């Protein structure tokens, strides 16, 4: 083993406490970065797979009442691949054991088969069957909130008529990944739920035989949704159309896409804070080590080691400290990413979960942390490399102190001696004081960012 490598190991052992502390800070940044990127990738892939498998619509529109013959004209719009027309109404529900009023979103589906778009994922039971107008399929969050399962029944006020509906299935839908009621800010599965009922039952209940009041469209690949929306709005205008919207503005998808954007933001901000602190600590530790090793640096250069070899020696020390954090961060980030993705799957009710961390995620975490560590210690490494042997063999020159602006002020006379010393140190090293304050500010910012969510939700 080369002499410099032996010295590197001795330095690492001598600084093991500081190496571990810096490694933990770097590990925190790497873990947050790996967690955020892997969860972002999993959430994106899961959403895309779910939407594709269940044929989630790409354009949505509502009308007061439109005849079914209009569907043929809608199909002729350039870029339209499929059309699913249906009936949607809100109904007041009466659930046994729950005294408060409950709002139910009734959505029609064909009896005995899946709709063309926005297909259901059955979790229990079956779809509604022909000839049974009182059968419904409940959304899983609503069914779980009220402890309902196939075979249970409840009452619904539909168009001023009270009817008893029987649960035959429990399902999930890509259209209601984020289930939020009218005027609500947060999902409330106790007071709002989605349920699917046979088309014939809703036609009879709301006098919409041969008509519809809601539709969704599937588009051909590469079609601009806005072009389709303009043509669709012209067709629906005379029937009380309220304006078609693209998938991007559909409320459930909008909340989900915002969550993905928040993950992107978190994968940038939080790791940056941790890695900036790690860079500062690297510079501080390495600067003190070089000040201690002045005579050794002089001896190394006297024995023929070049500036590049000395600088590379201390750069390897920085990379070794970063390596500890990278390994810890990889392990913690992979585990946290899995946990975070499972929480998303439970909250958004995904029927499937795709968690396949890309090796590129781990490579990005390692590369970013190494760059931050080396950038933070660049000044100290350059100082060690450029230190002349003769100067290194001598002790450092004492610092040159001058009177500061506050030294002759009357204000300083009112302060005790410890306070004067503190003020002098701040004035003499303003940059050091500034970065120390920034480090404390960043640590407080991380705590506030995490804890403010509790107050926001409450």
Structure description:
36% of the residues are buried. Strand 3 (88-94) and strand 4 form a beta hairpin. This protein folds into two domains: 3-51 and 255-457, no CATH class; 88-207, no CATH class. The model has no long low-confidence stretch (mean pLDDT 85). Helix 7 (251-292) runs parallel beside helix 10 (359-376), helix 7 (251-292) runs antiparallel to helix 14 (430-457) and helix 9 (307-348) runs antiparallel to helix 11. The protein is α+β, with helices and mostly antiparallel strands. The protein has helices at 3-14, 16-53, 70-75, 140-145, 199-205, 225-236, 251-292, 294-302, 307-348, 359-376, 378-386, 389-393, 417-428, 430-457, and strands at residues 59-67, 80-86, 88-94, 102-109, 121-125, 135-139, 153-158, 161-172, 192-198, 211-219, 245-246.
Mean pLDDT: 85
Overall morphology: elongated
Structural class: alpha+beta
- The figure for the number of domains is 2
The helical percent reads 40-55%
The largest β sheet comes out as: 6 strands, mixed, barrel
Q: Would you report the number of β strands?
A: 11
The gist of it:
With 458 residues, the chain is an alpha+beta fold. 54% of the residues lie in helices and 17% in strands.
Question: What are its keywords?
Answer:
458 residues; alpha+beta; 2 domains; six-stranded mixed barrel; 17% strand; elongated
List the helices and strands and how they pair.
Elements: H1 3-14, H2 16-53, E1 59-67, H3 70-75, E2 80-86, E3 88-94, E4 102-109, E5 121-125, E6 135-139, H4 140-145, E7 153-158, E8 161-172, E9 192-198, H5 199-205, E10 211-219, H6 225-236, E11 245-246, H7 251-292, H8 294-302, H9 307-348, H10 359-376, H11 378-386, H12 389-393, H13 417-428, H14 430-457
Parallel strand pairs: 4-9, 6-8
Antiparallel strand pairs: 1-10, 1-11, 2-10, 3-4, 3-7, 5-8, 6-9, 7-8
């Amino acid at each position: 083993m080369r002499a410099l490598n032996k010295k590197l190991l001795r330095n690492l052992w001598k600084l093991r406490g500081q190496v571990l502390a810096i490694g933990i800070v770097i590990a925190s940044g790497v873990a947050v970065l790996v967690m955020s990127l892997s969860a972002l990738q999993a959430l994106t892939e899961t959403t895309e797979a779910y939407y594709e498998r269940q044929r989630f619509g790409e354009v949505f529109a509502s009308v007061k009442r439109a005849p079914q013959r209009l569907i043929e004209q809608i199909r002729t719009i350039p870029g339209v691949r499929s059309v699913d027309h249906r009936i949607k109404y809100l109904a007041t529900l009466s659930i046994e054991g729950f005294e408060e009023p409950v709002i139910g979103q009734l959505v029609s589906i064909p009896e005995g088969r899946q709709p063309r778009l926005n297909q259901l994922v059955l979790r229990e039971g079956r779809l509604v069957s022909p000839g049974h107008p009182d059968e419904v399929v409940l959304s899983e969050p609503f069914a779980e909130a009220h402890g309902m399962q196939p075979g249970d029944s409840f009452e619904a006020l539909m168009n001023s008529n009270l009817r008893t509906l029987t649960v035959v299935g429990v399902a999930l839908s890509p259209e209601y990944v984020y289930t939020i009621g009218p005027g609500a800010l947060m999902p409330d599965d106790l007071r709002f739920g989605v349920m699917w009922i046979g088309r014939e039952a809703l036609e009879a209940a709301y006098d919409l035989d041969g008509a519809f009041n809601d539709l969704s469209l599937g588009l051909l690949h590469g079609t601009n949704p806005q072009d389709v929306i303009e043509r669709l709005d012209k067709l629906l205008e005379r029937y009380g159309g309220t304006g078609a919207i693209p998938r991007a503005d559909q409320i459930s998808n909008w909340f989900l896409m915002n969550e993905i954007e928040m993950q992107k933001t978190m994968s940038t901000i939080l790791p940056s804070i941790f890695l900036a602190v790690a860079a500062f600590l690297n510079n501080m530790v390495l600067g003190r080590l070089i000040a201690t090793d002045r005579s050794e640096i002089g001896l190394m250069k006297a024995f023929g080691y070049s500036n590049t070899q000395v600088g590379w020696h201390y750069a390897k020390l920085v990379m070794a400290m970063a390596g500890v954090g990278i390994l810890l961060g990889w392990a913690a980030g992979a585990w946290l990413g899995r946990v975070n993705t499972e929480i998303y799957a439970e909250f958004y009710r995904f029927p499937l979960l795709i968690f396949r961390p890309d090796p590129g995620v781990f490579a990005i975490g390692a590369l970013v942390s190494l760059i931050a560590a080396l950038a933070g210690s660049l000044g100290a490494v350059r100082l060690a490399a450029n230190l002349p042997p003769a100067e290194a063999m001598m002790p450092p020159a004492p610092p040159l102190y001058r009177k500061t602006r506050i030294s002759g002020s009357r204000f300083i006379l009112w302060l005790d001696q410890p306070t004067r010393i503190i003020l002098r140190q701040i004035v003499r090293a303003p940059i050091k004081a500034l970065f120390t304050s920034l480090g404390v500010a960043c640590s407080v910012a991380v705590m506030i960012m995490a804890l403010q969510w509790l107050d926001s939700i409450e």
